[in-house]
Design a protein that fits this description.
The protein has three domains: about 10-120, Immunoglobulins (Immunoglobulin-like, Sandwich), CATH 2.60.40.10; about 135-225, Sandwich (Immunoglobulin-like); about 235-290, no CATH class. Helices cover about 0% and strands about 50% of the residues. The protein has no helices and 24 strands. The protein has strands spanning about 10-15, 20-25, 25-40, 50-55, 60-65, 70-85, 85-90, 90-100, 105-110, 115-120, 135-140, 145, 150-155, 160-170, 175-180, 185-195, 200-210, 215, 220-225, 240-245, 260, 270, 280, 290. A hairpin with a 6-residue loop joins β8 (about 90-100) and β9. This is Ig-like domain-containing protein.
Length: about 290
């Protein structure tokens, strides 16, 4: 049976051709059980169960509780209607369940009229709102090649699931999508082979979508030059560290490194034990960097 099942009543008192109404309020309630499980039907403990009612025209919190070790909120009194001397108002109930690392779920009960159990399933994995991370690999930034067939490579990671990756560039005269390939998993390395690129300096990047259609380019475009007359250096370059000198000691937190090399190069990098590699700035002749 319901918790309460009786009539509302009121009093009227007359005086000097006027009257005052004093009435009681009567709520009819039923027992509500909320059962929560994950997608494999395993009970979920500490799910926040919130019930809202909308007699005022908007949803207002009525009560909330956490589920027990069996995934249940048991026998919680829930209103069917309010009755007083002016009439009866029926309630609609919005049952919402939330838990960290799970997607929320809800259902609406229109005019609860008996004791009832609501079963709600929460899907593991919160909604994915984070974009993928894209890292350009090759051709390296600000490099020159004498090849007209170029292999573009980019790496990407995602916290949930990758969907596809595309290479963009301007070697047709305008910035454009060149090709797209489907990928999966949470990390991927993809190569694109583009043929017939003519002599010029170009920019390129990779665009990646994850399975929730979050998208990202690398943080900046990379550039490369095609020059069919270019002769790549042969042999191993000789590098001279100009500053700091060997076995130096410093009591400062910032330091500028200077190096020189015996031939023109496309890129300099600095590697220090325990620190991430750093790209150095080339000088005007590309034979030194800091």
């Amino acid at each position: 049976t319901s918790l309460y099942d009786s009539a509302a009543f009121g009093f009227r008192m007359y005086y000097s051709n006027n009257f005052v109404i004093k009435d009681s309020k009567f709520y009819r309630k039923w027992y509500l059980i909320v059962n929560t499980t994950d997608e494999s039907s395993t009970p979920l403990q500490d799910v926040n169960v919130s019930t809202y009612e909308n007699t005022t025209g908007s949803w207002v919190l009525d009560w909330y509780k956490l589920t027990d070790s069996s995934g249940l909120v048991l026998n919680e009194p829930s209103i069917q209607y309010l009755e007083n001397i002016t009439g009866r108002t029926y309630y609609n109930l919005n049952i919402s369940v939330t838990k960290p690392a799970y997607e929320s779920n809800s259902t609406i009960i229109y005019n609860i009229s008996t004791n009832i159990q609501i079963n709600l399933t929460l899907q593991s994995g919160a909604s994915d709102t984070l974009p993928p991370i894209v890292t350009l690999i090759s051709p390296m930034n600000q490099t020159t090649t004498n090849l007209t067939n170029i292999t573009f490579e980019c790496d990407t990671t995602d916290d949930v699931l990758l969907k596809n990756v595309s290479v963009y560039g301007n070697w047709t005269g305008t910035w454009h999508l060149n090709m797209t390939t489907a990928i999966t998993g949470t990390s991927n390395s993809t190569q694109f082979n583009v043929t017939g690129i003519v002599n010029e300096t170009y920019k390129w990047n990779c665009l990646v979508y994850d399975d929730s259609d979050n998208l990202a380019f690398d943080t900046s475009n990379w550039t490369f030059e095609v020059n069919t007359s270019y002769s790549p250096p042969t042999g191993i370059p000789e590098i001279t560290i100009i500053y700091p000198s060997n076995n130096s000691y410093f009591n400062q937190s910032s330091l500028e490194f200077n190096v020189s090399i015996n031939e023109e190069v496309d890129w300099y990098g600095l590697s220090i034990s325990g620190w991430a590699n750093q790209t150095m700035t080339l000088n005007g002749s590309s034979t030194g960097a800091n």
